[in-house]
C-alpha cells in the first residue's frame, strides 16, 4: 500500500524541482530554438549558470529530499540507480539507467529487483562507488533525524516498516542485498512493476558510510554527479556548485554539465525573479529559474514582446486541479447531486480564473492528459466547455431538490490560482445558473490543508489538487482512490473515502505489470471507471511558463518535470 502522506508536499513543489513540484509541446524545438538564442547556437562548456528561485533548496541531503527523477538542482550532485530521460516532452517521461546498467531486472513476479552498477563510477574524491554505498544511503533515509524523503521504501521493502536507520540499528535492512561491489538486490513485500520509477528518488543516492556525519551531511554531501557543493549558506538559500573532476560523461549520458559553476540564489520574490530574467543584464543573462512561473499579467506583457516571448519555456507536469466531494456529508451522499455539480461547472470560466488557456488546460479526466499516465479521453458528464445548467437542474430535481439547494465550498486563501478564491468564485458563479447557491469558506493555507486532509474534519465540498511522484497512473490514482489508503488518524488523501474492492484489486493487478505501456492502458481504463462515480470533478491541468536569460542555451523541458532541466543547459 502506498503511503501518500508526504506525497502532497509536491502540491507546491510540483513547480519547483520535481519536483519541485513546476511538455509534450514542451518548449524546446517547437517554442524556441532548442539550442538557445544567440549567433552561435552550439552549446559549449564553461561559464556560470545562475539559478534564481523563490524557495531555498533546504535539507540538501539525499535522504531528506522528496524528489522524483533525481530532482533538478539535486540531480547535479546526486546520481541514483535510475533517472528521468533528459529529453523534451513525452520522451522525457521515460525512466532510464543512471548509476545502473539498466532500469532493473525483475524476478519472482516483480517482488525482487536486481541492479548492476556501471564500471568506473567515482565520488568527488576519486574513490569508487559501490553497491554497499547505495544500500547504506537508503538505510540512513530511514533515520528519524533524516526524515522528509519519499515513504515508499518503508512500505515496499520486506521488514522495513519499523526500521529506524543505521544509527540505531546497525544490522541494516536484510531486504537489500549486496552480493558484490556492483550488484544490489531488493526484496519487496508485494509485486511492484514501477520499482524503476522509485529508483529515481534521491534516497537511492550512494553515501559512503565513512563520510556520513548525520544531520551535518547536507553541508557537504559527497558528490556522485558532475558537480560538488562548495558553498551552502542559510540551509540552501545560497548554493554554489563547481565541477566534480572525477565525474565522467562516459558513464553518464544524461547530464551534459556544460557550465563550470552553478550559482543557486533563493529566497527571492517571484516578481523580482521575473523582472531580473526579463531584463537579462549582467549575470542574469545566464540565469534560469526552476520554481517561478509567469503570472497572467506578466505573461500578457511578455507575449507582447517578441524577444521576451522567444525566451519563455513551456512545460507540463502531471498535475490536476479538481473539486472533491465527501460522500458522507449531505447532500453529497446523493450521486445525483454530485453529477449535477459536474454538469453545472463552467470549465471555461475556471480556466480564465486560473490565468487563461496559456496557463491552464481544461480537464475532464482525473489523470493528466499525457500518454505516460495512461490518459484515456472521457467525460462521464459531458456538458461542454461552459457547463449544462439545464441538465444539472434535471438531476437536482431527481435528487429531491427541484427548488435548488445551498452548499458550502471550502477553498484556500493562498493566491495560487489553483484552490484559491478566484477558482472558487468561478465555480460559485457557474453553479448559481443551475439553482445551486454556493457559500464560500476561505481558509488560510495551513488550516485549509489540515481540514481537508483529516477524515474527522473533511468538508463535503472543496477544491483540491494532486501531483504525481513520477509519470504514471499509479502514484496518481492509488493515494486518492485505494480504500486501503484511507487514514483515519492522520493525513488522508482518499477524500472520497472510496473503498471499492474491484478498484483495489485492479490497482494490485496493475502494480504487478512490468510492461509500463500495458500498465498505462490499464490505469487509463481505471480512471474512467472511477470517474463515473462522480467523487471528483476534474477542472484543469496547469501549464508552466518560465522565462530564462538571453544567454542560456540548450533548453530541455520534459513531461516528467514540466520545467527547464538545468543538467542540460549551457551558457553563452
UniProtKB/TrEMBL annotation:
Region (Disordered): 27-59, 205-225
Signal sequence, start to end: 1-26
Pfam families the record matches: SBP_bac_5
Gene3D superfamilies in the record: Dipeptide-binding Protein, Domain 3 (3.10.105.10), Periplasmic binding protein-like II (3.40.190.10)
Presence of the UniProt keyword DNA damage in the record: no
A GO biological process held by the record: peptide transport
Keywords attached to this entry: Signal
UniProt xrefs under SUPFAM superfamilies: Periplasmic binding protein-like II
Originating species: Streptomyces fodineus
Official protein name in the record: ABC transporter substrate-binding protein
GO cellular component: a single term: periplasmic space
Domain Solute-binding protein family intervals: 94-484
InterPro entries in alphabetical order: Peptide/Ni-bd, SBP_5, SBP_5_dom
Membrane-spanning ranges: none
Family annotation (PROSITE patterns): PROKAR_LIPOPROTEIN
Keyword Signal among record annotations: yes
GO molecular function terms noted in the UniProt entry: peptide transmembrane transporter activity
Amino acid at each position: 500500500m502506498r503511503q501518500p502522506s508526504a506525497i502532497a508536499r509536491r502540491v507546491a513543489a510540483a513547480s519547483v524541482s520535481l519536483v519541485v513540484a513546476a511538455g509534450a509541446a514542451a518548449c524546446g524545438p517547437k517554442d524556441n530554438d532548442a539550442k538557445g538564442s544567440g549567433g552561435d547556437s552550439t552549446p559549449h562548456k564553461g561559464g556560470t549558470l545562475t539559478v534564481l528561485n523563490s524557495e531555498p533548496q533546504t535539507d540538501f541531503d539525499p535522504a531528506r529530499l522528496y524528489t522524483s527523477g533525481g530532482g533538478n538542482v539535486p540531480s547535479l550532485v546526486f546520481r541514483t540507480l535510475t533517472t528521468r530521460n533528459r529529453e523534451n516532452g513525452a520522451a522525457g517521461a521515460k525512466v532510464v539507467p543512471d548509476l545502473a546498467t539498466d532500469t532493473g531486472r525483475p524476478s519472482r513476479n516483480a517482488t525482487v529487483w536486481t541492479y548492476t552498477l556501471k564500471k568506473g563510477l567515482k565520488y568527488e574524491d576519486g574513490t569508487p562507488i559501490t553497491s554497499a554505498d547505495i544500500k547504506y544511503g537508503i538505510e540512513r533515509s530511514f533515520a528519524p533525524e533524516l526524515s522528509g524523503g519519499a515513504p515508499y521504501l518503508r512500505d515496499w521493502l520486506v521488514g522495513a516498516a519499523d526500521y529506524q536507520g543505521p544509527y540505531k540499528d546497525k544490522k541494516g535492512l536484510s531486504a537489500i542485498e549486496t552480493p558484490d561491489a556492483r550488484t544490489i538486490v531488493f526484496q519487496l513485500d508485494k509485486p511492484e512493476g514501477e520499482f524503476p520509477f522509485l529508483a529515481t528518488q534521491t534516497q537511492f543516492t550512494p553515501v559512503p558510510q565513512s563520510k556520513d556525519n548525520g544531520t551535518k551531511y547536507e553541508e557537504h554531501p559527497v558528490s556522485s554527479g558532475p558537480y560538488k557543493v562548495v558553498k551552502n549558506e542559510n540551509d540552501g538559500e545560497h548554493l554554489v556548485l563547481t565541477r566534480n573532476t572525477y565525474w565522467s560523461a562516459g558513464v553518464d549520458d544524461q547530464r551534459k554539465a556544460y557550465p563550470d559553476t552553478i550559482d543557486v540564489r533563493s529566497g527571492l520574490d517571484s516578481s523580482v525573479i521575473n523582472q531580473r530574467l526579463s531584463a537579462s543584464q549582467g549575470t542574469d543573462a545566464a540565469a534560469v529559474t526552476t520554481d517561478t512561473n509567469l503570472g497572467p499579467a506578466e505573461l500578457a506583457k511578455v507575449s507582447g514582446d517578441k524577444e521576451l516571448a522567444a525566451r519563455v519555456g513551456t512545460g507540463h507536469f502531471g498535475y490536476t486541479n479538481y473539486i472533491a466531494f465527501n460522500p458522507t456529508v449531505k447532500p453529497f451522499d446523493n450521486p445525483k447531486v454530485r453529477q449535477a455539480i459536474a454538469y453545472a461547472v463552467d470549465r471555461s470560466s475556471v480556466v480564465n480564473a486560473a490565468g487563461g488557456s496559456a496557463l491552464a488546460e481544461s480537464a475532464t479526466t482525473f489523470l493528466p492528459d499525457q500518454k505516460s499516465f495512461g490518459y484515456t479521453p472521457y467525460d462521464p458528464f459531458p456538458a461542454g466547455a461552459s457547463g449544462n445548467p439545464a441538465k444539472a437542474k434535471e438531476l437536482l430535481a431527481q435528487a429531491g431538490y427541484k427548488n435548488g439547494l445551498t452548499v458550502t465550498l471550502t477553498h484556500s486563501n493562498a493566491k495560487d490560482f489553483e484552490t484559491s478564491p478566484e477558482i472558487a468564485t468561478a465555480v460559485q458563479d457557474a453553479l448559481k445558473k443551475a439553482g445551486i447557491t454556493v457559500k464560500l469558506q476561505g481558509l488560510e493555507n495551513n488550516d485549509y490543508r489540515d481540514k481537508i486532509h483529516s477524515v474527522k474534519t473533511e468538508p463535503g465540498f472543496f477544491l483540491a489538487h494532486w501531483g504525481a511522484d513520477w509519470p504514471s497512473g499509479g502514484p496518481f490514482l492509488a493515494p486518492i482512490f485505494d480504500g486501503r489508503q484511507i487514514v483515519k488518524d492522520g493525513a488522508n488523501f482518499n477524500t472520497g473515502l472510496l473503498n471499492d474492492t474491484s478498484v483495489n484489486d485492479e490497482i494490485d493487478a496493475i502494480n504487478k505489470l512490468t510492461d509500463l505501456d500495458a500498465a498505462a492502458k490499464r490505469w487509463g481504463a481505471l480512471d474512467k471507471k472511477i470517474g463515473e462515480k462522480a467523487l471528483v470533478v476534474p477542472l484543469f491541468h496547469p501549464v508552466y511558463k518560465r522565462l530564462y536569460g538571453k544567454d542560456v542555451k540548450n533548453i530541455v523541458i520534459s513531461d516528467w518535470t514540466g520545467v527547464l532541466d538545468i543538467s542540460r543547459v549551457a551558457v553563452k
